[in-house]
Fold:
Amino acid sequence: GENVEQHPSTLSVQEGDSAVIKCTYSDSASNYFPWYKQELGKGPQLIIDIRSNVGEKKDQRIAVTLNKTAKHFSLHITETQPEDSAVYFCAASIGSNYQLIWGAGTKLIIKP
Amino acid sequence: NAGVTQTPKFQVLKTGQSMTLQCAQDMNHNSMYWYRQDPGMGLRLIYYSASEGTTDKGEVPNGYNVSRLNKREFSLRLESAAPSQTSVYFCASPGLSNTGELFFGEGSRLTVL
Structure:
């Protein structure tokens, strides 16, 4: 079946440094790629997304890049802050009706 | 405020007991989803409902039933709970902007002993 692989599973960075999380998808028909942040005890919240007709998208300290040929996309967080500590999930669209297949998640730890 | 509300937040069951998780959304969207989240496995779709009166299986439907009671409410039922159903369950629905964003409830943590 279709899947999304996400790496690394845990990422520890010094406050102020950059963090990069990578995902690879298998369904060549996927055309929507969101990233969600999940804080402890909460549901996931969308932080940024990208569609297949765009190669890169930025929102302040967060950016996402997409390489459709290689079927991978990445989340970049610059100037990391303590409040960036959370679990981050990538996902790729499959079929219709907002259906997504999800990566396994990356626990991001920001060291003071 | 727009959002997704699910209850209960915590539940402990014995093997073989039944229970229903409730979800309600006030964004007036047609679609609603039930996911389960297990450590190291991300979110997996159990069932979804594309509109009132319709439901469809997701990746992991076995052991669950759903009811789309009306446009606002979508419930998930475990008829005979098993330890393998110990998980955190999330309900979700898209917003009316139709950008693709899903809004999630805060989760229901279920333990089956």
Notes: The first strand of chain B starts at residue 4 and ends at 7.
